[in-house]
Amino acid sequence: MSPAWPLRPGQKVRVEFYKYPEEALHYFWEAEVVEVRPEGVLTLLPQGGVFHHVGKGRSLVLDHDAYVAFFPGAWYSGGPDVREGRVLEYYWNVQTPALWTGDAFRQYDLELDVKCRADHTCEVFDREEFLAKRSLYPKGLGGGGGAGGGGRLPPHARGALARFAPRGAPALDGADLGEEVGDWRGGCLEASWA
Q1: Is it the case that residue 52 has pLDDT exceeding 80?
Q2: Contact at 8 Å (CB) between 53 and 70?
Q3: What is the DSSP code string of 11-59?
Q4: What mean pLDDT do residues 32-59 have?
Q5: DSSP character at residue 75
Q6: pTM for the complete prediction?
Q7: What pLDDT, on the 0 to 100 scale, is given for residue 19?
Q8: How far apart are CA 74 and CA 67, in angstroms?
Q9: φ/ψ of residue 31, rounded to 5
């Protein structure tokens, strides 16, 4: 069992991501806990499992296994997508720390995503969505608390993004994320569930 979350391998859990400020369910899936460590929980949405994108009104049946690790207090989650034992990519989501409800991991999606291919080439996605919405986030979520707030991504979320962002990635919040991360190639691997 994880000290932070009372989970065990084989347990079924629901994973829910909400949009802010609507507090509307954005997407979800049903997963199985495959490993529990003191530092986090690894879940699996297996090939043939269904990813429900409520915000887009569609569901997708996966043609690969999707492993997603959750870490208590972390401003990100993610892991490798695997097909026939081969890593396709690592996918990381910048989010609020996951809350365990007793049957689900629940968190707010902070728009930013990082994909790292197996060759360690990483790319940040949805930067424009984050920049467009960040003034709506309360101060604790990276915003200014309302219209025109012009807030910043929280330091922990900035650190999570910097950990995976490629060197030379365009700046967010006035910082060159590539400079913060140092050797990003190592960051992609170190962050994976080895």
Answers
A1: yes
A2: no
A3: -EEEEEEEETTTTEEEEEEEEEEEEEETTEEEEEE-TT-EEEEGGGTEE
A4: 95
A5: S
A6: 0.76
A7: 86
A8: 17
A9: -130, 170
In one letter, which amino acid is 161?
A: L
Structure tokens at 16: 């829910």
- Domain locations in the chain? 12-191
Q: Where are the alpha helices (DSSP H) in 119-183?
A: 127-133, 155-164, 177-181
Residue with tokens 């991501």: 17
SS3 187: helix
Structure tokens at 185: 């190639």
Q: Give, as one character, the DSSP assignment of residue 172.
A: B
* CATH code assigned to 12-191: 2.40.380.10
First to last CA, the chain: 19
Give 71's contacts (C-beta < 8 A, 6+ positions apart).
39, 40, 77, 98
For residue 127, the SS3 value is helix
DSSP-derived 3-state class of residue 136: helix
Encoded tokens for 87: 């890593």
Phi, psi dihedral angles at 171 (to 5 degrees)? -70, 145
In which band, very low, low, confident or very high, does the pLDDT at 122 lie, cut at 50, 70 and 90?
A: confident
Q: For residue 2, what are the CA distances in angstroms to 35, 75, 105, 174, 192? A: 10, 18, 14, 37, 18
